[in-house]
Design a protein that fits this description.
The chain contains eight helices and nine strands. It is an alpha/beta fold. The protein is globular.
C-alpha cells in the first residue's frame, strides 16, 4: 500500500528561512510541452517528535481503519450488486484517515463540473494518500483504474475485486482485456472512472510523463476527461517513507476536455493536452 521506510527531507538554508527551489515540469517528448517553472518551498527539517507522531499515531490509526473497516465490509460485498455499499465503506475509511492526519483540504473548481454525468477523472499521482483523498472529497461513486500489484495486499486486494475496480496488468496488457471491456460497459452505463495517467507515483514531486494508453477508455466511450491536480500530496507523504507530515492540501479541478470525434490514433495528442492542463493546475498560482 505504501512504500518502504526512508526519509526525503531537505535542510533549511543557512539564513534560517525556508529555501525555495525551481521545480520544472516533467520533460517528455509530447508536443505542446511548456518549459514553465514554479517556485515551491524546498522543505523543512522534521524532528524526532514528527517521526514519532507519524510512526506511533498516524500510521497505526490508518492501518487500524483499513483492517477494521475492511473486515466489516466483507459480508456486504457478497450482495452489494452496484458497489454502493462498499464505496460507502471506502469513503468512511478515507474520511477517518484524512481527519486523523490534520491536513485540511481545499477543493477548487469541482462545483463547475456536472458530476451527474460520467467522466474520466485524470489525476496526478504524488502519494499513497491520493486514493483516500479522492474517496473523501469526490462526492459521487466511481471506479479506479489500478495496477495488478495492489491485489496482493490483504483486505485491500479483496475490496478492489469485490467493489468492481478496474485492474490493469502493466506487464501483460493482454490479460486485462476483460477488465477493460467491463470498464467500458460501466462508463457507458454512467459510472465515472478515475485514472492516474503517470502509471505510478512520482519519485520527486514533479509530474511524470503521461501514458497515452490511459485515455483509451475515454476515447472509446466518448466521455469527457476532467483534469484534477492534487497539490501538497507529495510533501504530505512521498514514496519510500511512512513519515506523514501534516500540511494543507488542495484539489484543483479543471474544465472538462472533450473526446467527441476522437479515435484511438489520437491518444498521444489527447494525452499531451490533458497533461498540459494538469500541469497548469498543479504548478500554477491561484
Amino acid at each position: 500500500m505504501w512504500g518502504g521506510p526512508g526519509l526525503n527531507e531537505v535542510e533549511p538554508d543557512a539564513r534560517g528561512s525556508r529555501a525555495t527551489e525551481q521545480i520544472p515540469r516533467a520533460e517528455h517528448p509530447q508536443a505542446g510541452q511548456s518549459a514553465a517553472y514554479s517556485e515551491r518551498p524546498a522543505g523543512k527539517k522534521y524532528g524526532l517528535l514528527s517521526h514519532l507522531r507519524s510512526y506511533f499515531f498516524f500510521d497505526p490509526l490508518i492501518w487500524f481503519y483499513t483492517v477494521a473497516l475492511g473486515i466489516a465490509s466483507i459480508p456486504f460485498g457478497f450482495f452489494d450488486r452496484d458497489g454502493s455499499i462498499l464505496h460507502a465503506f471506502a469513503r468512511a475509511w478515507a474520511r477517518l484517515t484524512m481527519k486523523s492526519i490534520f491536513s485540511p483540504m481545499q477543493v477548487i473548481g469541482l462545483d463547475h463540473i456536472d458530476t451527474s454525468r460520467p467522466h474520466v477523472y485524470a489525476v496526478n499521482h504524488g502519494s499513497a494518500l491520493d486514493i483516500p483523498v479522492l474517496y473523501a472529497y469526490l462526492p459521487f461513486q466511481f471506479r479506479i483504474l489500478h495496477k495488478k500489484e495492489l491485489l496482493s495486499y490483504p483486505i485491500v486486494g479483496w475490496h478492489l475485486k469485490r467493489s468492481g475496480q478496474v485492474c490493469v496488468d502493466q506487464q501483460n496488457p493482454a490479460r486485462s482485456v476483460g477488465q477493460i471491456k467491463s470498464a467500458l460497459r460501466t462508463l457507458k452505463r454512467g459510472m465515472p472512472l478515475v485514472i492516474f495517467p503517470e502509471g505510478g507515483r512520482t519519485p520527486d514531486g514533479r509530474i511524470q510523463a503521461f501514458l497515452p494508453g490511459a485515455f483509451f477508455l475515454a476515447i472509446k466511450s466518448q466521455v469527457d476527461i476532467v483534469p484534477i491536480a492534487l497539490r501538497g500530496m507529495y510533501e504530505l507523504l512521498p514514496m519510500d517513507t511512512y513519515h506523514i507530515k501534516p500540511r494543507p492540501i488542495e484539489m484543483r479541478v479543471g474544465q472538462p476536455i472533450s473526446t467527441a470525434g476522437l479515435e484511438t490514433k489520437d491518444m498521444e495528442q489527447l494525452s499531451a493536452k490533458v497533461q498540459k492542463e494538469i500541469e497548469n493546475l498543479y504548478y500554477g498560482s491561484e
